[in-house]
Each structure stands twice: as C-alpha cells, then as structure tokens.
C-alpha cells in the first residue's frame, strides 16, 4: 500500500495530507507502471499460449470442417471400391464364364496405375490428400477396365445371339443396293409433314425395285397397305422380336407365311408417307422400337459394326 504523508497544522489544529511534488509523483507513477508491466508479462505469455488469436481460431474451425469432409469423402471412396469389387467379381465369375471368356487377371485390373496428375504435385505435403487422390486414380482405372470388359461381353453376346436364326441380324438390303443409310433413329424433322417427329426406324435409300430381305426367321404377322407405311410387311421372330419393312413397291409374302432369314420380302418403293425410294426398316422388342443398327452383326465385320454403332449421330440423335 502506498505511503501517505501528513503534517500537523497548529493553526487549524489538524493533520493535513502532504502531496508529493510533481517530479516525485511522476517517478513514483513510473515505478508502479513498470512493476505492473513486469507482473503482467507472464500472464500475457500464459494467455497467448493457451488462447489463439481470432484468425487462428477461424482457421482451426475451417480445418476441422475440411477434415470432417475429407473423412466423408474417404468413406465414399471406400464404398465405391467395395461396390466395384462386387461388380468385378460378378463379371469374372458369372458374366465372363457365361459367355466363355477368361476372367480378367489381377495384373490387368491393377495395371497402368501410375502416379497422380502432375498438376497435383503441390499436395505432396499433405499425405492424406495425396493418398486420397491416388486411390481415386486407381478407382478410375478399374472402372475403365470394367467398361472395356462389358464392351467385350456385349460384343460376344451379340455374336452368340445372332447365331440364333430367328434373331434379326442382317441388313434387309444388299449392301450394293444401299445408296445411303440415314442415321435417323430418334427425333428428326419429317420432310413431308414438316414437323419434328420421333422417327423409330432406319431409312435406307436404294434404287426402285431393289430386293428387300427378311433379317431373321419368323412368321408374317402383317402384309397390307397403311397410309403411313404404304405397302408394309411385319415379321414376328418370336422371343419378343418383330421387324417391319415399309414403303414397299410390292411384297412377295402372305399373312401367316413362315419365312427364313435372307428370304425375299418385297421390293423398295415409295408408297405411303414417303418422298423418295427408300426402305423404312424397324426392329421392335416387346412392342417397342429399338435401334436397328444393333441388329446387323451378321453382315458387318467388327470394324464396320463399331463404326456404325459409334457414329456421332447415335450418341445424340438430333434429326
Ligand atoms: Zn423412315
């Protein structure tokens, strides 16, 4: 406690307080201030050690959020791995076996997984993030392998199915007669009706009277004239398949007649809603039109077939 000084005043008969001079006051205040600062130092140090700045606290919170999100991402990658694993197993032990294909070796499934993209080199200081990216790269590679395997499976399945005589599997025209195959399955502008319409078949431009052939064994389920199709033949192939041959000049089959793949159906015409000699060909499965380009395997070699199937128009039919 600070010392207080008093002096007796005989005139007032009282003790009166004596205040220090200005200099003394400043010196004393300085000493107090110094003492206060010295004692505050350890407290400040302790405080700084224990509590971080606001910015640090914000960053710590952000870090926490990022870390939680990252953990969720890792869990999802794990799940994707596990699902793909089941898929790969089913592929090897069921689908590939079913179609007499060898299971894919582990070396194929694992091959080609290199380092991660160079632009991500900056993440080297964060092993957890780097590890996550590497696992994603591996996942991408395995998906790619699986997709290739399914391509192979679908090709093999197509070939095996096309061996079944009833399946539509050839071109309905001689290749030499086909002036142009219009890649027009899907929505397109109808040249006569002048409207956009879903076109559910393939148009094949050919000379007048070019022969049209049945694309698989079956029974004629319709042989007449319709306003839209003109002279038309439907063939029921069983197993849910049907083919239609429209705008014919003349047909050579009767309702209920049994036909063989490659048998003459009729001749190319332009009857019904048509503005040029062409064959409108449809393939239906369970009553719904499907794209006929998937049913030419017997006539086209693998390269030709792939070229047709991968035609950009089929990726996004616009016409
Ligand atoms: Zn058409």
Describe the structure.
The protein is an alpha+beta fold and 319 residues long. It folds into two domains: 54-162; 175-315, Glucose Permease (Domain IIA). Helix content is 40%, strand content 24%. The protein has helices at 22-50, 54-98, 106-110, 127-162, 302-309, 312-315; strands at 5-9, 14-18, 180-182, 186-189, 196-199, 202-205, 211-213, 218-226, 230-238, 241-251, 258-259, 264-268, 278-285, 288-290. A hairpin with a 2-residue loop joins β13 (278-285) and β14. The chain is elongated and about 150 Å long. It starts with a strand and ends with a helix. The model is unreliable at 313-319 (pLDDT under 50). Bound molecules: zinc ion. The site of zinc ion (ZN) has 4 residues, from loops.
The oligomerization state is single chain
**Number of structural domains:** 2
Q: How large a portion of the residues is in β-strands, by DSSP E?
A: 15-25%
CATH superfamily of the largest domain: Glucose Permease (Domain IIA)
Distance between the termini: 99 Å
Which features would summarize this protein structure in a list?
ten-stranded antiparallel sheet, two-stranded antiparallel sheet, 319 residues, 24% strand, elongated, 14 strands, Glucose Permease (Domain IIA), alpha+beta
Summarize the SSE layout with pairings.
Elements (H helix, E strand, L loop, with lengths): L4 E5 L4 E5 L3 H29 L3 H45 L7 H5 L16 H36 L17 E3 L3 E4 L6 E4 L2 E4 L5 E3 L4 E9 L3 E9 L2 E11 L6 E2 L4 E5 L9 E8 L2 E3 L11 H8 L2 H4 L4
Antiparallel strand pairs: 1-2, 3-6, 4-5, 6-13, 7-12, 8-9, 8-11, 9-10, 10-12, 10-13, 13-14
Helix pairs in contact: 2-4
Bound molecules: zinc ion.
The site of zinc ion has 4 residues, from loops.
């Amino acid at each position: 406690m600070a010392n207080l000084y008093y002096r007796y005043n005989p005139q007032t008969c009282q003790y009166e307080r004596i205040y220090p001079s200005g200099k003394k006051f400043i010196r004393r205040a300085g000493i107090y201030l110094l003492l206060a600062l010295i004692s505050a130092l350890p407290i400040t140090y302790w405080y700084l050690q224990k509590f971080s700045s606001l910015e640090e606290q914000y960053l710590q919170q952000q870090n926490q959020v990022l870390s939680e999100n990252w953990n969720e991402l890792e869990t999802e990658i794990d799940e994707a791995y596990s699902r793909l694993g089941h898929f790969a197993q089913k592929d090897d032990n069921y689908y590939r076996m079913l179609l007499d294909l060898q299971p894919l070796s582990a070396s194929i499934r694992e091959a080609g997984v290199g380092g991660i993209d160079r632009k991500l080199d900056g993440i080297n200081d964060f092993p957890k993030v780097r590890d996550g990216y590497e696992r994603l790269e591996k996942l991408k590679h395995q998906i790619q392998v699986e997709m290739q395997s399914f391509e192979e499976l679908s090709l093999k399945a197509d070939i095996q199915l096309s061996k079944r005589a009833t399946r539509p599997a050839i071109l309905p025209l001689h290749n030499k007669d086909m002036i142009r195959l219009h890649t027009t399955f899907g929505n397109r502008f109808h040249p006569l009706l002048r409207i956009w319409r879903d076109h559910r078949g393939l148009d094949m431009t050919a000379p007048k009277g070019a022969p049209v052939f049945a694309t698989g064994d079956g029974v004629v389920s319709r042989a007449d004239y319709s306003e839209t199709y003109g002279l038309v033949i439907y063939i029921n192939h069983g197993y849910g398949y049907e083919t239609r041959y429209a705008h014919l000049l003349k047909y050579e089959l009767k309702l209920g007649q049994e036909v063989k793949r490659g048998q003459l159906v009729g001749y190319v015409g332009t009857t019904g809603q048509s503005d040029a000699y062409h064959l409108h060909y449809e393939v239906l499965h369970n009553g719904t039109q499907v794209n006929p380009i998937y049913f030419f395997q017997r006539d086209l070699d693998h390269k030709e077939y792939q070229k047709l199937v991968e035609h950009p128009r089929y990726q996004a039919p616009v016409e």
